[in-house]
């Protein structure tokens, strides 16, 4: 008997769209489905909760509200800074990304959303924050996690973490 409570590794193919039906991401153009271990935060909480009810071979469209996906859009994370504050100030363009400290001292990825002369407008929200998402999923495999996977906190093998 394992001392750890058993955890499952679930492999699934998905196509992620927003509510307008635009494709944001898909696993279907790669050979391997995506694999995650339950309870490790590898996928968004709303998706994980719905996936837990499915069996191998099930196909579903799962809708996840913004709050259960990448969070609501936080206006506090839109900030204006002088151009001189960022690395390579003379080459900055809309869409550039870099890491910086957020309001609670956490490291966030900021995107440049506007360049106005010497002022830049940055957005530290996840690009999918505030979006309700639709996952069109097909469950390919469900198995127990190995002791090594439980120790690492992520799925290994096809579609999982490679070291
Ligand atoms: Zn590992």
Structure description:
The chain has 163 residues and is mainly β. It has two domains: 8-70 and 128-152, Chitinase A, domain 3 (Roll), CATH 3.10.50; 75-123, Thrombin, subunit H, CATH 2.40.10.330. The protein contains two helices and nine strands. It has helices at residues 45-51, 147-152; strands at 8-18, 23-26, 34-37, 59-64, 78-82, 97-101, 107-116, 119-123, 133-144. The longest helix is centred in the N-terminal third of the chain and has 7 residues, at 45-51. Residues 152, 154, 156, 161, 163 line the site of zinc ion.
The gist of it:
With 163 residues, this protein is mostly beta strands.
Write the layout of secondary structure elements.
Layout: E1 8-18, E2 23-26, E3 34-37, H1 45-51, E4 59-64, E5 78-82, E6 97-101, E7 107-116, E8 119-123, E9 133-144, H2 147-152
Antiparallel strand pairs: 1-2, 1-3, 1-9, 4-9, 5-8, 6-7, 7-8
Bound molecules: zinc ion.
Give the distinct bound molecules. Answer: zinc ion
Instruction: Write down the CATH topology of the largest domain.
Output: Chitinase A, domain 3
Which structural class should the secondary elements be placed in? mainly beta
Number of individual domains: 2
CATH architecture of the largest domain: Roll
The 3D shape can be described as: elongated
Instruction: Count the E strands.
Output: 9
Q: Give the integer mean of the pLDDT values.
A: 91
Q: According to CATH, what is the class of the largest domain?
A: Alpha Beta
The helix tally amounts to: 2
């Amino acid at each position: 008997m394992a001392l750890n409570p058993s955890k499952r590794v679930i492999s699934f193919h998905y196509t992620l769209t927003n509510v307008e039906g635009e494709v944001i991401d898909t696993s279907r153009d790669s050979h391997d489905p995506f694999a995650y271990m339950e309870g490790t935060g590898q996928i968004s909480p709303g998706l994980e909760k719905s996936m837990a009810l499915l069996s191998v071979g099930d196909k579903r469209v799962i809708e996840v509200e913004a709050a259960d996906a990448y969070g609501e859009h936080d206006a506090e994370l839109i900030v204006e800074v002088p151009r001189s504050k960022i690395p390579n100030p003379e080459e900055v363009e809309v869409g550039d990304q870099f890491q910086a400290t957020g309001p609670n001292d956490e490291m966030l990825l900021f995107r440049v959303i506007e360049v106005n002369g010497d002022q830049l407008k940055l957005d530290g929200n996840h690009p999918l924050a505030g979006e309700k998402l639709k996952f069109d999923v097909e469950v390919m495999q469900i198995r127990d996690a190995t002791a090594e996977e439980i120790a690492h906190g992520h799925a290994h093998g096809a579609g999982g973490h490679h070291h």
